[in-house]
Amino acid sequence: MAEQLAEALSAAIGGAFSKVALYPMDIVKNNLQAVAAGSPKKMTQATVAKELVKTYGVSGLYCGWYWAMMSGFMEKGIYFFAYAWLKTLWTTTTGSWNTVGELVIGYVAEWTHTPFVQPIDANLVMTQTDSVKDPLTGAAPKNRTNMQRINEVMKTKGIAGFYKGWGSYTLLACKPAIQYYTFNFCKAVIIARAAVPRPDGLLTALESFIVGLIGRAVATILTFPAQRANVMAKAGNSDSSKGLIGTLIQVYKQDGIGKLYSGMQPEITRGCLSAGLMMMVKERIGVLCYAMVVRNTA
User: What value does the CA radius of gyration of the chain take, rounded to a whole number of Å?
Assistant: First the structure.
């Protein structure tokens, strides 16, 4: 149990740190993805950033950062605790640990935090997309308070309103499974081929950063269309009754296959840097967290 708690704590700290460190890129990315299909006005990373700074100053690039920090802490902490616990259960039950087990456990672990993190992420996306003009109508930013957003969602759609885009998670839950499988595979190769033996089984900070970046890039490319549909649903820029497939078909028919990957560049940039930072922090403080957990549970 101590090892699982230490894994969760180091991942939670790493997740919160990476979310806050790269938050300006996140708010730009989500605004790009949330643009309604068929919008006649093209938005770029530069135009979104300029609009935020023009309206709110530099602080506009950090609208809702506290939601992101909370989301990162809970998401990574719960995910890695569940992953470590389920891995122990799997190996105890089957007597082995292989690629199938790693991907299945990674997929299932993603669902353990989703019920808690999804409402936070939904409010985060609304906070971010409330901060800029509507690219289709040119309407001014909504600038709703947190309570106004929550009350509006509860009155119009109830608690289900915080779970818009839920169906896309059937595919998006594959993303961390692919990401961390790729990370662990590359990590094993690096350690096995290291010139100097590494009995602690740890990567250096630079290696953790680079391998974390690679894992996220692979996972993002494979799952991005579903991720974009999910952001559109949360921002209210798609018909939630259409579901994941319906939203993707709508975007494809109106704007072609390229539009399915609209906003992927900032997601690749921000997401990969975030994953690299998170894994670097997690790997480096993991031993410290383990020692702290053992001392406080002894």
Answer: 20
What does the alpha-carbon distance between residue 40 and residue 16 come to, in Å, rounded to a whole number? 36
Burial per residue of 203-221, b for 16 or more beta-carbon CB atoms within 10 angstroms, e otherwise: beeebbbbbbbbbbbbbbe
Q: What does the pLDDT look like over 17-39, one tens digit per residue?
A: 999 999 988 888 777 766 544 45
For residue 3, which of 84, 99, 71 has the smallest C-alpha distance?
84
Q: What range does the domain containing 50 cover? A: 2-297
Number of domains in the chain: 1
Would you call 225 exposed, middle or buried from its count of C-beta atoms within 10 A (0-12, 13-18, 19+)?
A: buried
Q: Are 280 and 209 in contact (CB under 8 A)?
A: yes
DSSP state of 35: S
State pTM to two decimals.
Answer: 0.79
Q: Which residue has the tokens 């935090």?
A: 113
**287: CATH:** 1.50.40.10
Tokens standing for residue 46: 């530069």
Q: Which of 46, 66, 36 is nearest to 138 (CA)?
A: 36
Helix and strand totals (H; E) in the chain: 11, 0
Alpha-carbon torsion (227, 230, 236, 239), positive or negative: positive
